[in-house]
Amino acid sequence: MAFAxxxxxTAPAAADTSRKKSPVALLLLLPGILYLVLxxxxxxxxxxxxxxxxxxxxxxxxxxxxxxxxENYVDVVTAYxxxxxxxxxxxxxxxxxxxIISYPLAYFIGVKARRWxxxxxxxLVLIIAPFFISFLLRTLAWKQLFSDxxxxxxxxxxxxxxxxxxxVTGTAFSVIFGLTYNFIPFMTLPLYTTLERLDVRYLEAGSxxxxxxxxxxxKVTIPLSMPGIVAGTLLTFIPAAGDYINASRExxxxxxxxxxxxxxxxxxxxxxxxxxxxxxxxILMTAILVIxxxxxxxxxxxxxx
Amino acid sequence: MKLSIGKWVLPVYTAxxxxxxxxxxxxxxxxxxxxxxxSNITWRGFTFDKWLNVCNVQNGAVxxxxxxxxFIAVVSTIVATTLGTMIAIAMVRYRFKFRSQLSLFLxxxxxxxxxxxxxxxxxxxxxxxxxxxxxxxxxxxTMFSISFVVVxxxxxxxxxxxxxxxxxxxxxxxxxxxxMRITFPLLLPGILAAALxxFALSFDDFIITNFNSGNVSTFxxxxxxxxxxxxxxxxxxxxxxxFILALVIVVTVxxxxxxxxxxxxxxx
Amino acid sequence: xxxxxxxESGADLELVxxxxxxxxxxxxxxxxxxxxAGSFFAxxxxxxxxxxxxxxxxxxxxxxxxxxxLIGGKDVTDQKSFQRPVNTVFQSYALFPHxxxxxxxxxxLRRRKMADPLDKAHExxxxxxxxxxxxxxxxxxxxxxxxxxxxxxxxxxxxALLLLDEPLGALDLKLRRQMQLELKTIQEDVGLxxxxxxxxxxxxxTMADTIAVMNKGRIEQMGAPQELYELPRTSFVANFxxxxxxxxxxVVGTTSTSISVDISGQKITVPIDRAHRTxxxxxxxxxxxxxxxxxxxxxxxxxxxVMGPGRVIDVSFSGVSTQYLVDVPGAGNLxxxxxxxxxxxxxxxxxxxxxxxxxxHGFGLDDEPADAPRFSPDLxxxxxxxQHRLEGA
Lengths: 305, 268, 393
Known about the structure:
Largest sheet of chain B: none
Oligomer: heterotrimer
Helix content of chain B: over 70%
Number of helices of chain B: 11
Strand order of the largest sheet of chain A: 1-2
Strand content of chain A: under 5%
Helix content of chain A: 55-70%
Radius of gyration of chain A: 23 Å
Shape of chain B: globular
Largest sheet of chain A: 2 strands, antiparallel
Structural class of chain A: mainly alpha
Radius of gyration of chain B: 23 Å
CATH superfamily of chain A: MetI-like
Largest interface: A-B, 96 and 95 residues
Distance between the termini of chain A: 30 Å
Strand content of chain B: under 5%
Number of domains of chain A: 1
Distance between the termini of chain B: 34 Å
Order of helices and strands of chain B: HHHHHHHHHHH
Number of strands of chain A: 2
Shape of chain A: globular
């Protein structure tokens, strides 16, 4: 799948000399670029403009006119500060768990299972299988499995792991669980693609040079799989930070678990407070870009671990 | 060499993890056979009814939403694959200014949370005064698919030996003939993979659709709207059917790929 | 010997009754081998002969199916790779791409918690004349430089035993020669035991003091390079180490010093102390450079074997020498190397010639004649073409 290719930013590109200059290039590029300018770039600009709009003086509810009302940002940050923090808190936690869970999985499939290509393909198909069933339905399935009447929850209560009046759905746990579950394939696939190409001769060299299994893993395997770790964490963190399905009350969330995505959705589609939704979107995007660029820089240039 | 227990930790862990990944899929599939009433939460007995009468529930709302999703996915896939493939070929084969800036620009839609993409488009359609309908959904889906298509096809173009095209020209092929008879057939697997990905992304998209769909229902949106009052088992039927179909396609591709690799290995 | 101290000197390596089976095939069958401390030992053989597997067993990267491995008298069979006082220079070098050259070299010292790892790494980098590149990444170095870093990374640990897995294979000819000499010098300087695995017979002969020729999971012959070259025991050794002209026939006469073999009516004499077997059907041989070409029949001399007349079917000039291919009816094709002492060749294709060699240069193999190929197995395409031409004529 393309996620695999996504992780290989170092894919061997044709040498620059083999590329030629030609007006054909422009013809090939122009339609696609134009499309993205029209439906990706301009929308971001209108989002920025909308975020600064002020309510129309004589208009109906939900009507706004262009202005430079930067106070919108102050308003949304004051009102939704907990949601913003919660979003990043949940997303970072889910990304962390997804990494911890996916790494051994990807390692087994990509390194240990190399001798059995059929097993490898089967495991890969199972990893991407969740993509084939509706995101919403599989999230709902967990809601049912975690509901108060479910076998799982009643048995946990019977053995007193859970308090008799405890709930699983609607808690931070269930939202983070849902996020982790839903984005595990995004983490596993790029990890798999780097680990699959990991040259085991480096591991042998490490072992030959007096490094125990643990040290080989820490000093050789992890640093060499860094591209996959970076790609996987980004592919998990970015959509998780903006997700509002898992945290929604109809799915795994509750009133206390609303994330920034839920607030943007509500402001756009229910409250029709477009400037507030737009301002929150701009804040979300900026925060993600800042976090991502710091992260990429750190993991790329500084000595790894 | 190793303790025999240590040898089994990873395989057992992997099997367990894969099993847990499968749980919601199994749940959805099993509950497509539930003899449920309005909502499909408690198990009330086994039936094939829901599979046989998928379109009869709620005046066919499930099937209508499913049909819309398919139509949107097909149209947006065709447009996105065409535009994305053109960009990918240009990026690998031609030299031009602002190449790295273009790469970054193409990367951005993938690095932007869907909620921002959806809200941005919604804000744009609002300010231009375009009513939200099927067209706006297709426009939105095409937009986020293009970048993924570029990445998938680019990987394929990069592995293509330029000497093959040169050989084609050397053997008196015109530029068009070389493209149609050499480049395109060699790129086809990559293009097909990109198209499948684009289709899957569009078919399962909810967040961006929700912002730009107006009154039009798609399959994920139908589930979102019904989640509050109970989802009929027919939705599980549709999802399970799509799952099985996708699985068959992927397994066929994998098996034929493995068989081809085996034949090649034998020849060498 | 632990890994927390440097080895004071090289250690003996002993392999006892080693078997290694992989699913579907046997890589090594009953291998017994002792390599004395301080020696430069080469395991020579074609690809797939089991030499690399042997090396990996010693390094601890594979476990033997049966048998014991002893280093310096201590059984290390059950020790893991990182616990053995052994280091390897890998064929691919396996230099860690995420570390600098210096960090690569210091890696083993750090793992063993040795004092001043960086100073020691600099020291050994100076030895291989690469200290000025210490802060580069391996991928920024040339093949020869990478090879030297790999060597430095191994010897900095002062292992009791250094394993070299075809480390010169990726280098071009000139650099390979230079590295061969350097390796040899370093081995003499540091006094370690080197076990070198290679398929390059010339490399093995230049560098090693003992060579074991391996074929199909067994050792065919072991000894000093000159000994193997002069007195090969099997046709495999005779043709893997250089080229040989081999003839098979019954022993028809024996004296106290020599035996005579009948090759399609021509009598060939071999000194008895140069023959591994002295009765029945045997295979005898002689190296191509020991042969002399004559355009007239040479006078009879009891110390010289003569074969002919034959016909020259191919002449190829290669600088220092010229290679002639001579078809002698009944004896097959003989390869003759002649040094180019004069300008131009006095023997041309299709000429009628005789071939002679001093009796003392011949050797007799230990092979069952049925196993011995009648012709040199590594025929090049030119020879095959020449034979076809001959058969057509």
